[in-house]
Amino acid sequence: MSSSCIILFFLLLTIISVQTAIVKTQENTWKTKYFEQRVDHNDYRVNSLGSFKQRYLINGNSYKGGNFPIFFYTGNEGDITLFAKNTGLIWEFAAHFNALIIFAEHRYYGESLPFGSHSFANNSMLAFFTAEQALQDYVTLIEYLKATVASTNSPVVAFGGSYGGMLSAWLRMKYPGTVVGAYAASAPIWQFTSLTPCETFNSIVTRTYRGTNSNCPLNIRNSWKAIRGIFERGQPAKLKSLFHLCDDIKDKDELNALIAAINNVWVSMAMADYPYPANFLGNLPAWPVNYTCNILSKSPANEDALLMLISEAVQVFTNYSKDVKCFNIANGGDPPALSTNGWDYQSCTQMVMPMCSDGKNDMFEVQNWDFDAMTQYCIKEFRAVPREFWAVQTFGGKEAVAKAASNIYFTNGHLDPWSGGGVLTQLSPSLHAFVISDGAHHVDLRASNPHDTTAIKQARSIAKSLITKWVS
Predict the structure, then answer these.
(1) Which residues of the chain have pLDDT under 70?
(2) What is the pLDDT of residues 314-342, one digit of tens each?
(3) Which of 17, 151, 154, 162 is catalytic?
(4) Where are the extended beta strands (E) located within 289-393?
(5) pLDDT in tens, 379-429
(6) Which residue, of 64, 136, 407, 431, has the fewest CB within 10 Å?
(7) Distance set, CA 70 to CA 40, 98, 100, 123, 166 (Å)
(8) What local confidence, expressed as pLDDT, does residue 21 receive?
């Protein structure tokens, strides 16, 4: 596969990690507030770059002040209201603990733009787009809230899922005097060079599909050659018709975009393999991987029969509701629900998460991890050089985290490919981990559902017990 296709697929994987959060649950209310935040927390000059308005959402309906806690959601790579609408657990826990709820937006996302509409204009404007600056934003906001609307005695518990879960864990590691504990759901803090093999992610995706029937991943693996063969035989119109594409496949780059979009479909369904119907990026059935693999359980007689099955299976993700006119691969098959530009930049600087596949032990095409190609892409797009070992240098490797950190609860879903970069075992008496045997991407942070499995309920029960200890 070409280096441009590898980069496209890599970026899609990191982008879709957040998009599974866009699931409509119960309606919750909040007040929208803005805090005057420093652009650069490390600039002490009088004539510094000034400030910007960081958006945060607040709900104090359950809060009783005094020693009652603050539940602080560390915003992800998107509009903060998306996470407030879809992190039902924090609302349920707040009622139990009489807690103040805060959802803080990550700088450079949503309305929290340090330089307004010019925030992405050039790499000088983007220089303050780092996880360290975001963590300092959260600490500064917490200090302000405790001095104004909340009590100085209120213990703060950080919550987050996916990248937000990474931030909640890092917030506890770096600022233990600010937060007493962190609930980090599906937080791949070890999805970095030297910590997790690059093939792990795609291996877990394949394992999730193989768990239904062996023909399912086999058919997917065989489909790539068949799709490319149609194009190479000069039949791009057949691909457009087969996959109900919005636009023609005019060249090899667009063929690679189609391949990447279909990759996205399989990965997204593994991440969102919830035990009940979900409404993100369109409707999905309960257990969408099982539903899809029922289609792909057959042994097709020829290439055309195989691709008909693949097309039907892809539509489980792209058009389960039967009301989508065509499959738009321009955005990897996803509507622009979240800011992908921001995560693209972060992937080119600090969030360098190696991924690859060998086409034998997984169901994907051969994709070698090429850091040099990634670097050239990032220089071209942002004039930025990726920092391959940033995570280890900043927060420490596995042994360092086990020795130095405390009061963090890591949860991961066994079905979720991001679990490969997560903390799966207890590291110390105060670093807890729980693997949800039938869980997908941060399913435990979602609102309670009658179809929740025993393992999902157990993950939440453990969280409640740990938080009780932390805030006592």
Answers:
(1) 1-27, 280-282, 331-340
(2) 999 999 999 999 999 986 655 444 456 89
(3) 162
(4) none
(5) 999 999 999 999 999 999 999 999 999 999 999 999 999 999 999 999 999
(6) 64
(7) 26, 9, 5, 36, 19
(8) 40
User: DSSP character for 448?
Assistant: P
2 is catalytic: no
The CATH code for residues 31-194+390-471 is 3.40.50.1820
For the chain, how big is the Rg over CA atoms in Å? 22
* Token pair recorded at residue 335: 């509507």
CA dist 216 and 210 (Å) reads 7
Residue range(s) of every CATH 3.40.50.1820 domain in the chain = 31-194+390-471
Predicted TM-score (pTM) of this structure: 0.94
Active-site residue flag, 186: no
Which residue among 223, 441, 442, 452 is the active-site one?
441
Among 137, 344, 362, 416, the active-site one is 416
CA distance 28 to 456: 22
Q: pLDDT averaged over the chain? A: 93
The domain defined by 3-16+202-382 carries CATH number 1.20.120.980: yes
- Structure-token match 């009489």, residue found: 98
Angstrom distance (rounded) from CA 437 to CA 67: 35
